[in-house]
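Entry: ABC transporter ATP-binding protein
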Amino acid sequence: MIPVLDLQGVAFAYPDGHQALHGVDLHVHQGERVALLGPNGAGKTTLVLHLNGILMPGLGTVAVSGLPVTKANLLEIRRRVGIVFQDPDDQLFMGSVREDVAFGPMNLGLRGPELEARVFAALEAVGMAEYADRPPHHLSFGQRRRVAVATVLAMEPEILVLDEPSSNLDPASRRELADIIRSLDVTVLLVTHDLPYALELCPRSVILSDGVVAADGNTAEILGDEALMKSHRLELPFGFVPSSRV
């Protein structure tokens, strides 16, 4: 089976010479929910920006369901890989929720009833259909994050990448978003420092550290490995004991 996400030997250096990735291999299959963990500066954001061609590897290859991530394929790659950034205000810029969610599909040429159906389905999936005509800046932070997810779902991606989805959410919003993520029929890559959230949502975790994959396996086993966690500057909340919950 062809992985929905396939990175082979991906290396990348920024113009200032900083080597952010050192030959990363990562394979994610359809329907998986995988947490990408690691300390600040590990290369997580750099890796994510390779998934839809914002950055291109200096060495190695990236492919989505067999389609290489190249400049020639960017339009289709960016439909297949949807990234929800940490700050929803980076993705919401139209006058209403409906317009924000319609923006991407409209750029693909959708119009009329097909566009309306796509927008409604995406908003329904995140529980925000009743807010379609509200200005995004009138919504709470948690509601804006859900709308940001809807803007990506409206593109019907194969992979949903979530960058720190639980950050700055109150407990109820955090729980609601977790329920939404579990309900989605899409491959998920969850980039987070929130280790309990990773355990709750992702059966598999990958630790990226100093630009290389340091561990890849069962989330509960990885979080329960004290030596591994300490060596990569990862810490569970005080008193939290990991056990398989997904």
